[in-house]
Amino acid sequence: MPRFFIETPLSTTLIGQSITLSEGVYHHWCKVLRAKVGDTAVLFDGTGGEYTAELISIDKKSAQVKLHAHNPINRTPPFAVSIGLVMSRGDRMDYAIQKACEMGVHQIQLLTSERCQAHLKYERDFKKIEHWQGVAIAACEQCGLNIIPSIAPPVPLESWVADCEDALKLVLALADGKPAFPNPLPSSIALLIGAEGGLSPAEISFATEHGFVPWTICERVLRTETAPVVALTALHMIHELG
């Protein structure tokens, strides 16, 4: 069944009742996918769990569905990873956010840094945050997550690092050896990732002074859009292998 995020708050008290689809879901399901009365889909509001819904009426500008069963599953990892991601240009951010969400990231904090080449200066620039949140929603629709990661407006790298209180703090940077990961992994993990030019030596030093552990995943240098999904995958494997 297709899955759709809906902004209307859902609850088990609405089971058996009808609700109106949002304009975006109506357009996608009824216009693009050409759904018909009687078709079913999965709806979720981003706060947890999902509902099966049956299309009961369609008119020219809206549609009604009837909510059926509630499934409390969220498919979230057993540890919450917050990524501090220095902004990059072009489609790199879309890819990084999409794949990080598919791998179950908890939150993405946008960062500026010494080598950051992307800046949000004008009102039209800040609309990119709404776009990136939309990328996160679409990724959750596709992969089955029911709790949507937040895309937080940019702050200076130093501010995020200094305020970070996660149990395990990692920075993707050259390291002399492999970090000793606790077993099991803690419930909260912070991951600092630079932009195209990487993090400067001063920024890496600042991060380590605030408890971040340098982590070199492999011998190759990863692109900024590849690093989040590789790091998250590695953390999943570390968790599974214990």
Give the proportion of residues in helices: 25-40%
DSSP, total strands: 11
User: Rg to the nearest angstrom?
Assistant: 20 Å
- Helix-strand makeup class: alpha/beta
Largest sheet: 6 strands, parallel
The helix/strand order is EEHEEEEHEHEHEEHEH
How many helical elements? 6
Amino-to-carboxy terminus distance? 34 Å
Spans of 5+ residues with little confidence (pLDDT < 50)?
none
Can you give the mean pLDDT?
Answer: 93
In short, what is this structure?
Helix content is 30%, strand content 26%.
Write a structural description.
With 242 residues, the chain is α/β, with parallel strands linked by helices. The chain has six helices and eleven strands. Strands 8-7-6-10-9-11 form a six-stranded parallel sheet, sandwiched between helices. The chain has a five-stranded mixed sheet with strand order 1-3-4-5-2. Strand 3 and strand 4 form a beta hairpin. The two termini are 34 Å apart. The model has no long low-confidence stretch (mean pLDDT 93).
Task: List its traits.
five-stranded mixed beta sheet, six-stranded parallel beta sheet, 30% helix, alpha/beta, 11 strands, 6 helices, 26% strand, 242 residues, single chain, elongated
